[in-house]
# Entry
Amino acid sequence: MANDTHDSWITLRNLLETGAPAGEVEAMLDTLQAGELLQAVFHLAEDQQRLLLGMISAERAADIVEELPDSHAANLMERMSVDAAVPIVEEMASDDRVDLLGGMPDEDAAAILEQLDEEDADEIRHLSAFDPDTAGGMMMTEYAAFPMKATIRDVIRDLTSRDGEYEYLTVH
# Structure
């Protein structure tokens, strides 16, 4: 596996250095498991990490940013243009948005908040008011609700059949 990760990192780096089209980079990323992807990203230089986040889909970039340590993610995002950062932030879960923007300098976070739709910006401001180590600071606003008459089978079928609709939820 270590060799596979090394090969993945080299391949990804080479694609970025040669200016490969985004589709080719995305196709290469599709071949990696989550852990391999994260390791490959960490082996890239920070400017290559920012390039990668800016060229892939905002949804995939958000998935990567959410897995990075908060301080590293904030450092990467604050050095991106607001136009490149906003679509990524829009795709993130509410609790991850708050953590990311909370780790950025106030002026950078404010610039991103200004570009978000009013509902998202208000949600982030509300959640940011809580101390990070309290329940309010750890909560997310996304949830799934089902009627009391729903069976476990109904719920599982719904959760597994509507790919993407529950992407922000941690379901146990």
About this structure: The mean pLDDT is 84. The chain is about 70% helix and 0% strand. The two ends are 29 Å apart (CA to CA).
